[in-house]
Amino acid sequence: xxxxxxxxxxxxxxxxxxxxxxxxxxxxxxxxxxxxxxxxxxxxxxxxxxxxxxxxxxxxxxxxxxxxxxxxxxxxxxxxxxxxxxxxxxxxxxxxxxxxxxxxxxxxxxxxxxxxxxxxxxxxxxxxxxxxxxxxxxxxxxxxxxxxxxxxxxxxxxxxxxxxxxxxxxxxxxxxxxxxxxxxxxxxxxxxxxxxxxxxxxxxxxxxxxxxxxxxxxxxxxxxxxxxxxxxxxxxxxxxxxxxxxxxxxxxxxxxxxxxxxxxxxxxxxxxxxxxxxxxxxxxxxxxxxxxxxxxxxxxxxxxxxxxxxxxxxxxxxxxxxxxxxxxxxxxxxxxxxxxxxxxxxxxxxxxxxxxxxxxxxxxxxxxxxxxxxxxxxxxxxxxxxxxxxxxxxxxxxxxxxxxxxxxxxxxxxxxxxxxxxxxxxxxxxxxxxxxxxxxxxxxxxxxxxxxxxxxxxxxxxxxxxxxxxxxxxxxxxxxxxxxxxxxxxxxxxxxxxxxxxxxxxxxxxxxxxxxxxxxxxxxxxxxxxxxxxxxxxxxxxxxxxxxxxxxxxxxxxxxxxxxxxxxxxxxxxxxxxxxxxxxxxxx
Amino acid sequence: xxxxxxxxxxxxxxxxxxxxxxxxxxxxxxxxxxxxxxxxxxxxxxxxxxxxxxxxxxxxxxxxxxxxxxxxxxxxxxxxxxxxxxxxxxxxxxxxxxxxxxxxxxxxxxxxxxxxxxxxxxxxxxxxxxxxxxxxxxxxxxxxxxxxxxxxxxxxxxxxxxxxxxxxxxxxxxxxxxxxxxxxxxxxxxxxxxxxxxxxxxxxxxxxxxxxxxxxxxxxxxxxxxxxxxxxxxxxxxxxxxxxxxxxxxxxxxxxxxxxxxxxxxxxxxxxxxxxxxxxxxxxxxxxxxxxxxxxxxxxxxxxxxxxxxxxxxxxxxxxxxxxxxxxxxxxxxxxxxxxxxxxxxxxxxxxxxxxxxxxxxxxxxxxxxxxxxxxxxxxxxxxxxxxxxxxxxxxxxxxxxxxxxxxxxxxxxxxxxxxxxxxxxxxxxxxxxxxxxxxxxxxxxxxxxxxxxxxxxxxxxxxxxxxxxxxxxxxxxxxxxxxxxxxxxxxxxxxxxxxxxxxxxxxxxxxxxxxxxxxxxxxxxxxxxxxxxxxxxxxxxxxxxxxxxxxxxxxxxxxxxxxxxxxxxxxxxxxxxxxxxxxxxxx
Lengths: 588, 588
What we know:
- Chains A, B: One of its GO terms (cellular component) is cytoplasm.
- The structure is a homodimer.
- Helix content of chain A is 29%, strand content 26%.
- By secondary structure, the first copy, chain A, is of the alpha+beta class.
- The longest helix of chain A has 23 residues, at 136-158.
- The model of chain A has no long low-confidence stretch (mean pLDDT 95).
- Strand 23 (582-584) of chain A pairs antiparallel with strand 23 of chain B.
């Protein structure tokens, strides 16, 4: 079996050459005694023409061809007539006049057409994933994924990183998301856990003097799935010793720049912008702001704290906020009904209401305009830089609801109004995170990143007095409103790590049982270190322009964590369970 | 924090330069009012000298230093006196005269010294793996491992392969080794399995038109462990469409050649030798022969079938074999006691006895010499190309025992007698394998490789008549007596695959339940395809000259599949089990 060229490779330069191809029948048309067959391989398409005057034998075989048959063809490259040139494919100016053909394998009619634009449901596509993967757009995505990891690896190799594999069979830890468990046969009643990240192992490699580690690492979380979650996902994972936060960010900026150049052909400017967490929340209502457009949140709490509109005044009085978005020039485009729909949207994020005003030449209009007259109106207009034709949208609530609701509304309006340049890639570091988040319901602190994040040195004393004020040496990289990943400098002293677990509510025994080995390691000459992890699946999704994370994973799981192709998970033999000394207590 | 150089980088060329280093204290010596400190980082060692005449402050700090402290040092590179040059390290001709020092982190006394030659037990090394990894020899191994995967990836990238990740949460299949199971929380009573290899997925990628796939893939087997087995291991895994076996072997030879060149600096000759499975078994008693030395097995069955020595004659008569090794010139070195010890050794492999003869100027000597006189003696001597001083060792038994016992004995003698050039790397393809192995105890056929291996076209009809005669289009790559891996062309027709499962004893329903999706895939235009998988851990072990597979894995498990560092596996919370609806039926 042999090919001299691939389908996608052929063009005018090959005219007159004798070529041999192998590929799939994309389409067959019979026309005027000739048979035209588009032959597809992973590189593209080329048209092959069977003509009884060239070979009677060949056209007889061609008559049997159906879609997705695999054929081997030998023929000559001929220029197409000018009116038959197809400008949409690289081989569109030529065709192959076939002398010989062999059918390598036959095919039943696929349940859906192998074309980029498919209306097949995702369940069918997942069940027949091997056919779905034949769609050229899918191949392109996985080619891009492979190119991204190639670029990452070459970059990190050149920077002196070692690729090290960390275990998949690890220890279950209580902090964080739910673990997938693996029962041990040798140690009955005990379990391994699949890692949520290689966090502890990469820190141990730093203790072990490796200085620079990376891995394209598989990670696992047994969580309820959403459109952008999978039970297993992949991290570009790295850790390094002796580097400052600035040095870590700078290196990762160069890596991202290289990916963008190699994979998208786009030159992005470095250094990337940096924004404090507090500023991101204030201006965009989000810790991963999409900075490709404005519509920023404006704080009116000071302006309206004595407002005649009691909803505003009392929100401020009870410790909340009043913030607004000025949708420039949109007043005429949004009817009362449209605005009601925006209110519905905001309520999903917890807002009890969405107040609004329109601005015209005479001043403010709308149901609450009566509360804003004279000085109150002009200070509103001034603070919001409003002018005639603007639509002003207000949320008055506690701080987190204001941020969530207006942040989400801002994104929706940005899309609806076409304010976003879909071809632009705006990277942003969000820095100066809080170390802890306080959970009011549970009355306890959680680690905003994870329990190994190093606090700022100058905030160490606050760990005893006011943990909520402690800032973390952590950083997230945001692209177009998506968190690509992030990292932190790590704690490398036993005392600080113990304090951390104490604040998180671990007893001394619990901390020791779960993380004693790490704290012990810190006592044997541990270098200052820090790291980064990026979500590869999400990077691929953003760079490929997809909105479905499953399109970036060759064999993904559904929202109920099933593989529709192989039918995993599935029942297992009773003998397998007996070997593990396990019983299913209550099958649903 | 900043370093201008690394320790291993400094040499005579830097004399006179001011440098700044960060690293671990390898050793401190106080001598004549000076303090000498060896500073280690991952690149190597350099000697730093503290002199009160240069800095009183610095030497006061240096007085506190103990092994494994991390320090930052600033100083000047000075040539050592000629009689103090250390030729064993690259920086041995220079030393740093320190002006400033800062202690970055302190260290307790490690439980074992951080040196290449350690007498620490492996349990202690595994418990304190982060200290074990600081030993330069360990770092070198992982640097080599990283270099090997880098070389493999660059080679395969250049050959047009796509790196594709396949799932870790997959479906349990009954064939092969024992699966690790992962209970599903969403689908109670059902389980995922961790993959023993990406076999099915890589074939499905070929069905999906990817044409060339590779992955450095984690695989899992819940088997009883031996020195060269780990519960999780790594495969260099690839699959390709439309290539012949010769093309696959040729590409892999070029890949191996490149690895040897890049990692070991050795030029190996390609193409590698190829040997039929039958020949390997006949000449070496092994399907993975070490061909760096002779001591081949010689078949004497024909020669001795009518021998006066009944043990030989009856072995042949009952369908067995008589084979021998001629240990040239060894007669004088092996006493009767030594030979008895060899007999003990052979008995481990099932041999009921080890017959022997010595050759001297007069003929054969030894307890069975009396059975070989005249013609019988001379035909033995001739067949074995024996001459005075040779030791002849015989096993007479059924074929498999003869091969196992003499094959093992050959390896032992090769080592004991120093016949093996430890610096030579002899690659060998073993080809023309049988498709099936018949298990006499269970009275059934097993797949010699796996159930997806393609038989020779011309042997297809034998599947119905005599499966044991069917040859497989399979190949193993052997290096110095170790199987590095192998592969095969795959079945790509539903009919042949069904026949395969039938011979392996699957009912139609079982085959469909387990592998129905694959057989269905074959009906939609599947390309002829084949692949290879190499055991990365073993490749690293052989190229690094180690004999312990655990030294090639950063965080390995013990023989009872435990991680002594993190204490995995471990008990989990009752709540975790309840979420999975699992009960431990009988804790040991």
